[in-house]
Structures are given as structure tokens and as C-alpha cells.
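sry for the spam today, last one i promise. C-alpha cells for design, 366 residues
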């Protein structure tokens, strides 16, 4: 279906900075240096500084970012790793692919991991907690970190959706022991293809990851343990350096649109209001609505591309059958799954387009 108000408009964002992007591409082509060259190093440096993190390691995508950290920590069969059930499947897939068991903790009203339910999920086999900054809203890191510290657990932030988000002025990616980012085209900072990043505060982990993203090679010829090829491409890094310069401006536009939606829709649906100290970056603008399915059809029929993220929580996916979770295990997740709806919101969206979406929603409930 062709939507008059699409969920996102990546080509118009690309058009805005096309000259600079093409210059970056040309520079890489002319340099003859296409793998782990100066652009990857420069992007890692700028990204670490942006996130207020000690180190950054460019990788192939957000899933490999999660997986490589878990593998570097030695996570394996017999271990358990805790995450949230309402995330994108990759948060749990990365755990399962190490052989460890994903264990879920329900969410709170803010759609992020509920710290008050975290401790009861911790057992002697728990090694890592992966809070997800869902939709671009920071998870409750101070409480999560305090519990992790008490139980000597590693905290890996899944910040795939949340580049630039802050809590108490501190950016995501700088809170936990490590964090993973995705630069998938639907993320706020995006590549023209797949790309990802790990940030960490630990020197030893950083040094392991430099090897494990690159076949396990210590230098050109010596390999101490086999690994995958999960490198970030030089071409992606060069274009991401251009994108990074525009991220703050794009985030501000997202926030302006989100506040407008909040103002005009809060008497009709539950809007994502920011909690104290939160700086939400609205990778997804997600409302919770009565008669959600009818509202979505109404909007879609009127040419507005509204989407559900995600209609099936991870614990109810076929892939998770072996974990033997029941629907009712996570009541808050179950409750929001029937109510969530993501509305179009992107930096190229005009206020006129947004007013049209707002008017349709008011009409629906009116
Ligand atoms: C919360 C979350 N984690 C992990 C990922 C995986 O990132 P990628 O698609 O770059 O592998 C995504 C991407 O959609 C995500 O939203």
C-alpha cells in the first residue's frame, strides 16, 4: 500500500545531506582503504565521545554487537542472561545463540524493564542483565545498576533504539559495563545498510572485542581463538561520520514532533510522557490506545502508515517455545501488546502532515 503519510522517509533525510555523503564515499573509493581504515577509527573515537563512553568498537550490526559482548564475557550453556520480553527479537536471540538461556523480566508503564521485578529473576546461573532502552526511552539504569552491583552482574545496555538518549544528563551507552547500538536504516543514526557499535568502559573487554570482531586475529597472522567476521565497513563508517554531525538536529526535531503529538493526543490515548531526568529520542513514537486495531485500520485506510512494534512479544515467539513461558507470565507486556501503536515520526515530517494524523485520531475517538 502506498501511504500519503509514510512511517518514515529515509530518502528525504539522505537527500538533505547527499553532497556530503557522496564526498565521503568518493574519499573512501579514492583512498583504496576499505576495511578497518581511518574512518572506522575516527567514527569510533567520535562515537565514544558522543556517548561519554571510554571505548567504541565498530561492528557489522546491532545483533553482532550484543553477541560479541556476551561471547567475550564467556557466556555459555548453563548460564542465564536477563532481558525484557517486549523488545526486538535480537535482544534474546543474541543470548540464545551463545547457548545461554534468556530469562525475561516484565516491564513497567514506561515500557522498560521493571527494576522491582529484577531481583526475583536472578539465580546463581545469572551472569548478565540486558536492559533495553525501548523506543529510545532510557531504562531505569540507577536502580538496575544497583541490583547488578549487589549480585556482581555485568550490565549490557541494548541501546539499539536509543542513540543520544539521556538520563540525568548522562547518555545511554555510558551507564552500563558495555552497550550495543544498531545503525540499521530505521534507527536515529543510520547507515545505508547494516552497521553497529559497542561501547564499553573496560579496557580488557575492549581488547578482546578488537580481535573477536575480526576472525579472532591478534595481528595479521596469529589467531588465539576462532571468531566471526563482524567488522564495520569503512564505507559505512565514512557515511556515519557525516550522519553523526546531523544527529542532534534530527533528534531535536523528533522531540518537537513528539511533544506536539503528546499535547494534542493526551486526552484520547496514552502518550509517552517523559519521566524526571529522562531525555527520550523517540526512535519510535508509541502510543497506547483503546480499540487499537480499529484505530490502526482507520489510519492505514486514510493513508497514514501506523505500525505495531511488536505484535508478538519475544517469549511467545515460536523460537522461544523451548523456554516454556506462558502468556500470563508478563502481565504488563501482555497488556501493552494489545494497545501499542507506533505513529509516523521522522525528522523530515512536516507539522502539516502531523496535524493531519492528529486530526484523524481525534476524529476516530470524537
Ligand atoms: C532493541 C534492539 N536490539 C537489537 C537490534 C538488532 O540490531 P540490528 O538490526 O542492527 O542487528 C535491534 C534492531 O532492530 C533492536 O531494535
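last one done:
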Amino acid at each position: 500500500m502506498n501511504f500519503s503519510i509514510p512511517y518514515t522517509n529515509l530518502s528525504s533525510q539522505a537527500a538533505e545531506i547527499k553532497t556530503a555523503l557522496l564526498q565521503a564515499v568518493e574519499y573512501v573509493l579514492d583512498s583504496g582503504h576499505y576495511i578497518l581504515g581511518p574512518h572506522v577509527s575516527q567514527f569510533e573515537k567520535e562515537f565514544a565521545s558522543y556517548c561519554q563512553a571510554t571505548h567504541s568498537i565498530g561492528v557489522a550490526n546491532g545483533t553482532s554487537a550484543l553477541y560479541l559482548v556476551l561471547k567475550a564475557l564467556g557466556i555459555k550453556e548453563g548460564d542465564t542472561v536477563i532481558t525484557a520480553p517486549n523488545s526486538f527479537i535480537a535482544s534474546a536471540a543474541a543470548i540464545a545463540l551463545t547457548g545461554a538461556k534468556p530469562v525475561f523480566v516484565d516491564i513497567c508503564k514506561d515500557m522498560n524493564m521493571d527494576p522491582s521485578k529484577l531481583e526475583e529473576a536472578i539465580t546463581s546461573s545469572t551472569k548478565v542483565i540486558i536492559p533495553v532502552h525501548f523506543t529510545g526511552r532510557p531504562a531505569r539504569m540507577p536502580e538496575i545498576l544497583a541490583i547488578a552491583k549487589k549480585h556482581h552482574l555485568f550490565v549490557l545496555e541494548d541501546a539499539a533504539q536509543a542513540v543520544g538518549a539521556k538520563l540525568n544528563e548522562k547518555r545511554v551507552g555510558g551507564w552500563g559495563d558495555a552497550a550495543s547500538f544498531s545503525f540499521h536504516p530505521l534507527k536515529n543514526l543510520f547507515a545505508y545498510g547494516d552497521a553497529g557499535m559497542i561501547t564499553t568502559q573496560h579496557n580488557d573487554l575492549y581488547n578482546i572485542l578488537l580481535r573477536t570482531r575480526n576472525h579472532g586475529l591478534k595481528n595479521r597472522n596469529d589467531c588465539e581463538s576462532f571468531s566471526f567476521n563482524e567488522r564495520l565497513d569503512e564505507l559505512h563508517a565514512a557515511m556515519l561520520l557525516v550522519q553523526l554531525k546531523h544527529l542532534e538536529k534530527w533528534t531535536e526535531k523528533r522531540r518537537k514532533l513528539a511533544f506536539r503529538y503528546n499535547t494534542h493526543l493526551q486526552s484520547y490515548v496514552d502518550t509517552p510522557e517523559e519521566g524526571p531526568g529522562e531525555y527520550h529520542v523517540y526512535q519510535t513514537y508509541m502510543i497506547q490506545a483503546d480499540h487499537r486495531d480499529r484505530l490502526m485500520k482507520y489510519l492505514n485506510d486514510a493513508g497514514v502508515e501506523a505500525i505495531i512494534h511488536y505484535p508478538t512479544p519475544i517469549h511467545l515467539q515460536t523460537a522461544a517455545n523451548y523456554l516454556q513461558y506462558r502468556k500470563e507470565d508478563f502481565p504488563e507486556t501482555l497488556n501493552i501488546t494489545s494497545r501499542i501503536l507506533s505513529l509516523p515520526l521522522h525528522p523530515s515530517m512536516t507539522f502539516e502532515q502531523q496535524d493531519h494524523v492528529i486530526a484523524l485520531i481525534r476524529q476516530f475517538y470524537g
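DSSP finds eleven helices and twelve strands in the chain. ok im logging off now
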